[in-house]
């Protein structure tokens, strides 16, 4: 098997190594608190990051689609590494990427048999007695409402007698929004299978599966390029990168024998998505879901204790009243939606109150901001200003801009005088050299405050666009080499666009058309995108 690695994209070779106490204070500045939580029992408010509750215009589903993308191309071998490594120094040469960095939906289809001679996924991913449909799990009936008293095909497939999901990457069952995104892609595959089956062009299930997989992968790539990237990166940067993908003008230069993931992407720029996470979502007709609840109702969360009711009744599948309503997360049929938080230098409180490791005397392992900052230092990332120096069109943030941004922050549980003292210390420490992850967030915050946008700045946009576009070009069934143009390949009704809303509508409309065939035991139709109505 080929080894995949992590390397620098810009080759600056000048790690930025601020002291522990300064990174601790910067992480706390991003939370607005003066101490790290020592317990995962902390109760926090359900508010937005801003006092006025102002969020971005980006539908909230894209936050978790971004996480789904990340898991498809990257899984570093220190994900569950020792705490000492994370807070100290990690040699990037010793870190391996456990995923193949290609947009081929490895997390849905698996990697096939050794040698790549068999395109089919492992048997446990398939429906019983089928060579073309992927498995889906059933939810558990609940008494919360009339509709949730029924079971629905809306859970991940799970191993017999266990909450553990039968999926390639268990990280796609670590929060309910990414788990339901994985379910959506399984349903997308099955809907394409139905379309191909009823075309009557095929003589075997294996042939249907092979073509369905290709069609799904190509539409997934199209969603990334023409939907997702257009929301989170600057338009001019994206167009420049697409134009230069076949030239030597990109900073990111992987080769077929060295398909590495840049550290600047995986440890900094793509982690900007952490600032887009909300504390709370309107989840379906029954539930308003807090972030900690979205983690509980998963296999990794053990389908455990409901944070609202403290009900610890053990379940082996998702309760029916926790099925997502996709109309609330993407713009489908002009529906009212949850929007993501803005990309900026603050994280919602529940991301700063994660479960703390028992060995962590400081408590920083409960803070996503601390984890991201220390990981960047541990892996030797350069300061953000050094990266910005390399990029044409990037106006390097001045010491005054970084300093003023830091001085605008406030530690809510300290006196104004003590809070200002900490911010002055951070301004002195980080105005000229700033951790790359924080710099990318600061760049977006400053730029969007001026221009009123929602996307990454030039530095963040350049890193994300180069890596994703180049990997798209190098991927199996690349749409940058062979565009989606024919009716057989392109599933959008208007033949102009295909994003996450169109994918979900395709699932809904196809499954409605063949509902009786899909669900012969169902007496009444239910909407695939909102089964609870």
Q: Care to describe what's here?
A:
Strand 4 and strand 5 form a beta hairpin. The protein has a three-stranded mixed beta sheet. A two-stranded antiparallel sheet has the order 4-5. It has 533 residues and is mostly helical. It contains 17 helices and five strands. It has a single domain (4-397, 434-518), classed as Myeloperoxidase, subunit C (Orthogonal Bundle). The model is unreliable at 113-120 (pLDDT under 50). The N and C termini lie far apart (47 Å). Helices cover 37% and strands 3% of the residues. The chain is globular.
Q: What's the quick description here?
A:
By secondary structure, the chain is an all-alpha fold. Helices cover 37% and strands 3% of the residues.
Features of the shown structure:
533 residues; globular; Myeloperoxidase, subunit C; mainly alpha; 17 helices; 3% strand; three-stranded mixed β-sheet; two-stranded antiparallel ribbon
Query: Which overall shape is indicated by the principal axes computed on the Cα atoms?
Result: globular
Tell me the CATH topology. Answer: Myeloperoxidase, subunit C
The CATH class: Mainly Alpha
Q: What's the helix count? A: 17
Q: Give average pLDDT, whole number.
A: 89
What share of the residues lie within helices? 25-40%
Straight-line distance between termini:
47 Å
What is the topology?
Layout: E1 4-7, H1 20-31, H2 61-73, H3 83-87, E2 96-97, H4 106-109, H5 176-197, H6 205-232, H7 235-244, E3 261-262, H8 263-268, E4 280-282, E5 288-290, H9 291-296, H10 368-378, H11 384-390, H12 399-407, H13 416-430, H14 436-451, H15 458-474, H16 500-513, H17 515-518
Parallel strand pairs: 1-3
Antiparallel strand pairs: 1-2, 4-5
Helix pairs in contact: 1-10, 1-13, 2-5, 5-6, 5-16, 6-15, 7-15, 12-13
């Amino acid at each position: 098997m080929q080894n995949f690695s992590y390397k620098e994209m810009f080759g600056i070779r000048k790690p930025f190594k601020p002291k522990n106490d300064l990174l601790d204070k910067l992480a706390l500045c991003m939370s607005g608190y003066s101490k790290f939580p020592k317990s995962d029992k902390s109760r926090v408010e359900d508010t937005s990051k801003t006092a006025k509750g102002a969020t971005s215009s980006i539908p909230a589903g894209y936050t978790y689609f971004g996480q789904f993308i990340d898991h498809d191309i990257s899984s570093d071998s220190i994900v569950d590494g020792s705490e000492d490594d994370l807070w100290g120094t990690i040699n990037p040469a010793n870190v391996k990427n456990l995923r193949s960095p290609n947009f081929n939906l490895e997390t849905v289809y698996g990697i096939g048999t050794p040698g790549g001679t068999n395109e089919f996924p492992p048997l446990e991913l398939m429906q019983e007695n089928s060579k073309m449909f992927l498995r889906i799990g059933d939810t558990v009936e609940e008494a919360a409402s009339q509709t949730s008293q029924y079971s629905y095909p809306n859970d991940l497939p799970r191993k017999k007698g266990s909450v553990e999901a039968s999926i390639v990457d268990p990280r796609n069952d670590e929060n309910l929004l990414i788990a339901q995104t994985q379910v959506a892609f399984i349903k997308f595959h099955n809907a394409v299978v139905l379309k191909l089956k009823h075309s009557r062009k095929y003589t075997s299930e294996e042939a249907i599966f092979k073509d369905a997989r290709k069609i799904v992968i190509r539409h997934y790539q199209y969603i990334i390029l023409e939907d997702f990237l257009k929301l989170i990166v600057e338009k001019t940067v994206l167009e420049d990168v697409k134009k230069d993908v076949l030239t030597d003008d990109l900073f990111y230069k992987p080769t077929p024998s060295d398909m590495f993931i840049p550290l600047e992407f995986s440890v900094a720029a793509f982690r900007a998505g952490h600032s887009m996470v909300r504390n709370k979502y309107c989840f379906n007709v029954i539930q308003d879901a807090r972030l900690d609840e979205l983690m509980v109702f998963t296999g990794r969360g053990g389908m455990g204790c409901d944070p609202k009711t403290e009900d610890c009744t053990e379940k082996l599948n998702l309760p029916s009243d926790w099925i997502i309503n996709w109309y609330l997360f993407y713009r489908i049929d002009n529906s009212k939606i949850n929007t993501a938080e803005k990309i900026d230098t603050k994280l919602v409180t529940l991301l700063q109150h994660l479960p703390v490791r028992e060995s962590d005397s400081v408590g920083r392992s409960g803070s996503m901001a601390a984890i991201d900052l220390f990981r960047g230092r541990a892996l030797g990332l350069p300061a953000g200003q050094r990266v910005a120096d390399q990029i044409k069109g990037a106006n390097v943030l001045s010491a005054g801009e970084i300093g003023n941004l830091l001085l605008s922050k406030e530690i809510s549980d300290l006196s104004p005088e003590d809070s200002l003292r900490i911010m002055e210390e951070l301004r002195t420490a980080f105005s000229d050299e700033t951790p790359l992850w924080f710099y990318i967030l600061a760049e977006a915050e400053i730029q969007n405050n001026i221009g009123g946008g929602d996307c990454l700045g030039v530095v963040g946009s350049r890193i994300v666009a180069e890596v994703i576009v180049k990997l798209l070009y190098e991927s199996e069934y690349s749409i940058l080499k062979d565009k989606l143009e024919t009716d057989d390949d392109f599933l959008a009704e208007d033949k102009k666009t295909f994003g996450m809303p169109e994918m979900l509508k395709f699932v809904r409309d196809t499954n409605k058309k063949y509902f009786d065939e899909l669900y012969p035991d169902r007496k009444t139709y239910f909407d695939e995108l909102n089964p609870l109505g």
